């Protein structure tokens, strides 16, 4: 990317996409933002609102709108095609609409000459990211899902509350699927570099942790927010903005993101979250943790859950094929 202007495109600028744009803009992460939505009036309104707010930013940013083809000039394109789902539904219920929209957008983006990095927020995140990777033809290191980065933030926040510490003191990741098959990686959670498993034996504040309760709260917290406000805006877009910043800064830091596995944990050919080193080119290295049997079993279950969604996605794609156009 060199020293040229840092350009980010966002596909879908309703609740999630617009908050993602605001996070990136107000933090000065990008120099240019291009907003894209099938509702052009909405995209223009969001761009106008952001441009007016930029008067108060301590840095300059150009904000415009465009069609999907106009995003070909971007270094990073964020896919935020979330749509409302029934209150009784789970993230997986978004699969049909998500696949249809991705199948429409990604081939057009690639045909226009895009050769950057794609970050997917759209749910179900892992399966949709895998479809985006396949449709784009890009190297898997340049197609990334936000995955359990949000779930990991929830885990750190909840655990910190339970033990009376600041969340920045907790270093721990949620692994696997961004969905019900996710699990906190207790075996590698640390506080001030000291493993939690050791602290449980020596420190009173850690001795009586109800891990099952914490796991359930982490897994359910997203739904609790969604049921009230019918969307999750601030947290997931903060995670996405952090990922964009780390890519632009060539940060080389580990993040719990959805990546294509190639033999790690005995799994291949599936997008799922594990710590991965993020750099200017996307994913530099996938870090395989040495998991105990129970956590490894959870990980395999997560992979199978994602594969199940990928199979459903294939059925959706097949049903969408128009014989007259193929």
Please write out the topology.
Elements: E1 7-11, H1 15-26, E2 32-36, H2 40-53, E3 62-65, E4 76-79, H3 95-111, E5 117-120, H4 125-136, E6 143-145, H5 149-163, E7 170-171, E8 174-175, E9 183-184, E10 190-191, E11 194-195, H6 196-202, H7 211-229, H8 234-248, E12 253-262, E13 268-279, E14 282-286, H9 293-320
Parallel strand pairs: 1-2, 1-4, 2-3, 4-5, 5-6
Antiparallel strand pairs: 7-10, 8-9, 10-11, 12-13, 13-14
Helix pairs in contact: 1-8, 3-4, 3-9, 4-9, 5-7
Shape: globular
The count of DSSP E runs of length 2 or more, i.e. the number of strands, is: 14
Sheet with the most strands: spatial strand order: 3-2-1-4-5-6
Which strand-content bin applies to the residues?
Answer: 15-25%
Stretches where pLDDT falls below 50 for ≥5 residues?
none
Number of helices: 9
Give a short account of the largest sheet. Answer: 6 strands, parallel
Distance N to C terminus: 37 Å
SSE order, as H and E? EHEHEEHEHEHEEEEEHHHEEEH
As a whole number of angstroms, the C-alpha radius of gyration is 20 Å
Mean pLDDT, all residues: 93
- Kindly name the structural category: alpha/beta
Name the helicity range. 40-55%
């Amino acid at each position: 990317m060199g020293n040229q202007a840092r350009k980010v495109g966002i596909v879908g600028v309703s609740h999630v996409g617009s908050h993602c744009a605001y996070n990136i803009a107000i933090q000065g992460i990008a120099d240019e933002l291009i907003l894209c939505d099938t509702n052009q009036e909405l995209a223009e309104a969001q761009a106008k609102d952001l441009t007016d707010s930029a008067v108060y930013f301590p840095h300059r940013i150009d904000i415009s709108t465009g069609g999907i083809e106009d995003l070909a000039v971007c270094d990073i394109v964020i896919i935020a095609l979330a749509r409302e789902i029934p209150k009784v539904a789970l993230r997986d219920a978004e699969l049909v609409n998500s696949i249809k929209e991705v199948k429409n957008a990604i081939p057009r983006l690639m045909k226009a000459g895009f050769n950057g990095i794609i970050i997917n927020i759209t749910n179900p995140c892992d399966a949709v990211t895998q479809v985006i990777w396949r449709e784009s033809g890009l190297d898997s290191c340049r197609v990334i899902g936000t995955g359990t980065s949000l779930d990991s933030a929830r885990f750190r926040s909840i655990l910190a509350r339970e033990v009376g510490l600041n969340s920045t003191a907790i270093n721990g990741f949620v692994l696997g699927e961004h969905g019900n098959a996710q699990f906190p990686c207790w075996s590698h959670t640390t506080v001030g570099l000291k493993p939690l498993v050791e602290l449980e034996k020596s420190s009173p504040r850690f001795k009586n942790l109800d891990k099952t309760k914490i796991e359930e709260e982490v897994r359910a917290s997203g739904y609790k927010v969604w049921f009230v406000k019918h969307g999750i805006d601030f947290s997931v877009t903060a995670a996405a903005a952090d990922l964009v910043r780390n890519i632009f800064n060539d940060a080389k830091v580990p993040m719990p993101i959805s990546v294509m596995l190639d033999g790690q944990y005995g799994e291949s050919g599936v997008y799922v979250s594990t710590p991965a080193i993020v750099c200017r080119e996307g994913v530099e290295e996938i870090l395989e943790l040495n998991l105990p049997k129970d956590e490894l079993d959870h990980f395999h279950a997560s992979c199978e859950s994602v594969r199940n969604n990928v199979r459903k996605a294939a059925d959706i794609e097949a049903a969408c094929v128009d014989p007259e156009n193929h």
